[in-house]
Amino acid sequence: MSKVLVAYFSASGVTADAAKKIAEAAGAELYEIRPEVPYTQADLNWQDPDSRSSVEMKDKSSRPKIADKNAPVADCDVFFLGFPIWWYTAPTIVNTFLESYDFSGKRIILFATSGSSGFENALSDLKASANSAGALEEGIVVHDIQNSDTWKKWIMALGM
To answer: HEC profile for the chain?
Structure first.
């Protein structure tokens, strides 16, 4: 039986709530990807072209530092990797996370939260950072995290 980890980055708490529901539905351990310097509301102002998140997302090579490198990656076979959609893709801190560990032979299944956007470029933007992974799969984008049936049906459809 595979050991499963739900790793997630959440700036406002929405993706954290989704990650908790997925971990519960999958019987998985939970790990939060935390930035070394937490984001403030001003940092997250996507309407300000000089905000921290805007600057990071304009620069595809941006790699915000993560607070720790203690995710139990070596112990797991399957990862659910979650994030909010920013500018039609994953925040660059997710690339930092993927580049910080060896995912050789491991299955990574993406999930995202968004008010209205889909994955758009997330899968292709993350592939280079997860090049050691056995599989990087586009999962689901959820707009209504409260519906627990969504998570259970999705996890069952994945064969878990």
So the answer is: CCCEEEEECCCCCHHHHHHHHHHHHHCCEEEECCECCCCCCCCCCCCCCCCHHHHHHHCCCCCCCECCCCCCHHHCCEEEEEEECECCECCHHHHHHHHCCCCECCEEEEEEECCCCCCCCHHHHHHCCCCCECEEEEEEEECCCCCHHHHHHHHHHCCC
Residue at 140: amino acid letter? I
Domain boundaries, the chain: 4-157
Q: How many CA atoms lie less than 13 Å away from 43 in the CB half-sphere? A: 12
pLDDT for 145 equals 65
Look up the CATH superfamily of 4-157.
Answer: Flavodoxin domain (3.40.50.360)
Cα angle 117, 143, 118 (rounded to 5 degrees) comes to 25
Tokens found for residue 61? 């090579």
Distance between CA atoms of residues 157 and 139, nearest Å? 11
Give 65-89 pLDDT, tens digit per residue: 999 999 999 999 999 999 999 999 9
Return d(Cα 85, Cα 117) in angstroms, integer: 7
